[in-house]
Amino acid sequence: MKLLLLAALLLATVPTFAQKAKPTENLVQYAKPLVGTARMGHTYPGATVPFGMVQLSPDTDTLSYEQNGKYNPRVYEYCAGYQYADKTIVGFSHTHFSGTGHSDLGDFLLMPTTGPLQLNPGTADQPERGFRSRFSHQNEVAEPAYYRVKLDDHNIVAELTASNRVGMHQYTFPQSEQAHIILDLTAGIYNYPDKNVWTFVRVENDTLVTGYRQTHGWARTRTEYFAMSFSKPFVSYGSRNLSKKQVYRGFWGRFDQTKNFPELAGEQLRLFFDFKTTAGEKVKVKMALSGVSTEGALRNMRAEVPGWDFEAVKRAGQALWQQELSKVVVESPKRVDKENFYTAMYHAALSPTTYMDVDGQYRGLDQNIHKAEGFTNYTSFSLWDTYRALHPLYNLLQPKRNADMVQSMLAHFDQSTMHMLPIWSHYANENWCMIGYHSVPVIVDAVLKGVVPADQAQRALDACVTTAHQQRYDGIGLYEQLGYVPEDKSGASVSKTLEYAYDDWCIAQLARKLGKTDIEAEFSKRAQNWQNVYDARINFMRPRLADGSFRPRFDVLSTHDQGFIEGNAWNYSLYVPQDPAALIAKMGGEKKFLPHLDSLFTMHLPDKFFAETEDITRDGIIGNYVHGNEPAHHVAYLYNWTSQPYQTQARVRMILPKMYRPTPDGLGGNDDCGQMSAWYIFSALGFYPVAPGSPEYALGSPAVYGATINLENGNAFRITVKNQSDRNVYVKEARLNGQKLTRPFLQYADVVKGGELVFTMAGKP
Amino acid sequence: MKLLLLAALLLATVPTFAQKAKPTENLVQYAKPLVGTARMGHTYPGATVPFGMVQLSPDTDTLSYEQNGKYNPRVYEYCAGYQYADKTIVGFSHTHFSGTGHSDLGDFLLMPTTGPLQLNPGTADQPERGFRSRFSHQNEVAEPAYYRVKLDDHNIVAELTASNRVGMHQYTFPQSEQAHIILDLTAGIYNYPDKNVWTFVRVENDTLVTGYRQTHGWARTRTEYFAMSFSKPFVSYGSRNLSKKQVYRGFWGRFDQTKNFPELAGEQLRLFFDFKTTAGEKVKVKMALSGVSTEGALRNMRAEVPGWDFEAVKRAGQALWQQELSKVVVESPKRVDKENFYTAMYHAALSPTTYMDVDGQYRGLDQNIHKAEGFTNYTSFSLWDTYRALHPLYNLLQPKRNADMVQSMLAHFDQSTMHMLPIWSHYANENWCMIGYHSVPVIVDAVLKGVVPADQAQRALDACVTTAHQQRYDGIGLYEQLGYVPEDKSGASVSKTLEYAYDDWCIAQLARKLGKTDIEAEFSKRAQNWQNVYDARINFMRPRLADGSFRPRFDVLSTHDQGFIEGNAWNYSLYVPQDPAALIAKMGGEKKFLPHLDSLFTMHLPDKFFAETEDITRDGIIGNYVHGNEPAHHVAYLYNWTSQPYQTQARVRMILPKMYRPTPDGLGGNDDCGQMSAWYIFSALGFYPVAPGSPEYALGSPAVYGATINLENGNAFRITVKNQSDRNVYVKEARLNGQKLTRPFLQYADVVKGGELVFTMAGKP
What does each C-alpha distance from A566 to A43, A72, A571, A592 come to in angstroms? Predict the structure, then answer.
């Protein structure tokens, strides 16, 4: 009863929208958390709610970053802790990035076991030597907010669900005099040498344990707090400290700290809790998180999951997912389409994640505790990826959340000693991952689209301008001086120059809107800097040196040390999203540009180039078009700036089924916090935001048979697709509210005021 | 102007008392912070205010706990970071225990230098190889709240002062193009291997730096935060991370983190700040501390020392000391008497230390942030030492503070997973140092004397009883079962039995007061347990085994493995403070007891026994009476329970000048957070609290020529000494308010209501 009330409250905090076209269908059934868990998708199959703080998921391995003193390349496979091909599960941890190309997290690994206590995890080959267990996909169920698996070695069925800040476990034990639940605080994803800085545990009573885990690594100084409650008192407990770094023992000898001692601290702690169980007995565990304190974690637990009704928590979580997924109701006769679409919708609503306690407190970049006034604070902004389509998607489907994300970025800016907006915001840390200052397009796009309150516009502009003037950051000083980043001073210089130029264009747009003509002029000029790295002799973007010359050594196919990052010259040279027409002109006009673009999709890429890119599979490449990484995500839409938009339509319809399948190995590359999925959602609906910061989308070719976008403002935007089929990939005609569109573009403003877009499809251009 | 206002505010927060006998004399001149800095006093000479959070003091060495993988015994000399015999100063750190026999702290070592930057400290033999400097005691001044020294190698005069939570440095530089201020976060006192857990620094701007240092060791999980402000912008800054445990560098290569990079973290950081100085230029630094956060530290700085007037901060600090010292105004024709007395008063007002920010927030045992409602939270309770005379002294001289200390202990109890009052409360940690549960006598004494509000009495009793029932703690389970702690199960068993029995007697007194007859009966019975370790065959307390037998192997002179801690059987067997008369009876009555007690003071102790005790000097022993440790502190007063109280008088007057001299080597042992000094104060005034929890003091022989105790309640208690001289050590007569005392005892109640005690002295008993 209490829990139902809670679920209602949770629902109430979600952005409301008039449920006009209220779906009768259960959409949760189509979202498949296992998609992307094989090979390079880097997704996790466990339980979470939309944008939740808790991602409670099985880890099939948690490899050490180093093996025998050397970097272990296989660690890369375990960014999300789970690989579908694995045969064993080590345990269930509570935090996971979704789809990243680097990782961290994996906090507070729990594992239920039976039999003699084993405190080491064992190995994948010999799980019986430790607490891990074999499992089979036959005994595995993964749904939004729910995961179940049978742990064969222990004869335990483990079920997981979650609220925003609380992970809930339900373990069905056999009869056992020796049942245990392990809490492994040494476990973590991407374990650097000595990644644990410190752990701290208090056994408050025989059902409640609190503590924290402090790590360094990708996030330099990260502390995650927990409060863990058992549904049944443990009969005994204990720990091992695996580190040489021990607490002071001069006066501690009087206590046996390994058994029933309630106040533990150390670098490498593993704990166990002992139970006696009857056959079929369910022992439940609630693990509440907080970035603030154990007190905060306990408060989160009491607020979100005060009781022990596992099914109710699961129902509440799936209700949140139904609400989230039903923001777009698509039609298709094929289940695979719905599975692809709602799996994409699911992956596009996993991160950024809530990083704030129920009372509004959160940890800031300065490691102080701040209060979020009037917004929800989020973390895990993988902005180099997500500025492209994910945040633009949020402007459409959940402007309220995106506005809060912008507030989170501005708070980060306020707390930054570098006076910069986030590059990769990571649990009260800046990890400086990837390039550019892509908070800028996210913020500018949100402000210009009216998603961010107008009274925040000047503050937003100030933060963008200050960030773009941070001369000590990644070549900006030279960029300002030379008009490009010189490769001999700062690697990946072409990528940086191109992306800075685009970000600068965004700043100019916002400055224009606010009438700041000097800023507009300055950044409009900077937006032209892409021209400075264009080598007209070869028609490619090319690294330039500080002396002004282009670097002689140059390979347009390689992604390695050619002035680019996660892309080669072929893909990156097309990156002028702020002005494709100018790029086309620069490249010699349509006559030269079109065959060039065609060959990107059709050329043969020699094998050696595949090996260079670690975060995509071979499937993630079509010809030389790399969809598994982001720099070319807009490229299929560039035909819209030529006389052959139909080619965009064909390319998009080819990419969609090739790159997205509702199977564990169905993603062609890292999902990258939802960017890959956001590309799917837009493209399947028939349009794409080529240049966030611009008011328009480029039209493509819808893959669905119809869709209704239920907007937060209460309006609905209807997409009707006539004569749709797998072969009819060409748009014969598109009518907006009855008016035929003369250009292959759609205005954001037209979508959000509601209306209807009717595509009429054809089998020929 | 602002600062003067602040000083007034600070004064206003100190317990007020009517300044009846307002002293015209400057008492601060008599307090000598250098006393005890040679040999085993373990005091520090630096700047602090009464009970201040900051103890800003020079460290002459900060030895590592280990040398070549072995314990370095010399580390023990550096409990307070300073040894008078040393020739060099490493720097000035901000936290120091006073007089402890173990240590920690030494946070945030600052050192001003000139010349080429050196980031290692150098060695005592070759200071020129590092940043440390030679110095001379000729160029050194140490006063309460003020310290000055010339750093010869750098030609810099360093001056230090402090408010409660802010240390202030004033460095007078020579002309230099290469002036530096080093902030060494790797430095610390009693540096265990890898004692640093983590350090974190933000260079907020060119005058403000914030951060923290997190350590493990004596305190398992200790984090101290700072905010540091310079009076002059530095021109550049940088750091070295001396640990192999580095932050993630994948995306960090783009920054040179060693120079002008503002957001640092790591295990072993040393920072430097560069200046250009003119001849005689003063660069000032304010270092504010907090146990809560860097935000808290900054708030503390802004509240306590908003400006840059070094002299005003010093004046305010010394005004606090004058107020503190003038609580007892003594008379003596000899300066040495006043120096001894006010140095003792000074040392008795250093700890417990404030552990709370200006806004009342403090870190609790659970590492959560708590708010102290209506009290000041204190830490560093070295209770095994200080329950004896220091807290009883506070009941007399500053009941308000002692009430707050009791509140701090009760808050600790509330936060303890062991459900115990503090044993050794240490910056949001329990370090379990030493034995007994001596929060109990502190609390009981304060409650029974009306110092703690009556509405807290029941809460206090509950905490005491719960603590005394914690069977898992240090033999209590067996103690409850057998009536003594068996040596074969728990070492130092006799000491524990004796001290538990005394603590239990205290609980019984409080229970009686509250009419809890069952508790009174239970603990009165436990209070008799001292009898269970008394071996009547040899007339000594003696370790007993679990089978009931006394341990055959036994040496009454050794302190090593004889069932005692910091004392031998000779000293400890006299420890029944709750009932000396019963002890004397047990030992065969006065006829046997008196010669026994005499021989304690006169016997010859073979050399080998001196070597056993590391924390006292040979001077700390008279015969076999060990004054340098605490267990015998009441012993000289035991003659009062015989027909020869005059012997108490003679012994006390012998001990006083022998154990206390106003010179660096003037303390015969560790000052132990003020317990040794509190013994001096009481004894010099002519009485001593043999059994805290009892309403009376035992009279001794006053060493002063007269004294006025200015009580917080506005009353004054006058001690007049007639016919005083070094030879007239015997009390011929004592009259309280004109009434001749017939017993050698004085009631606490008679003192606090004000009045006059007149001693008439004589040269013979």
Answer: 19, 21, 10, 26
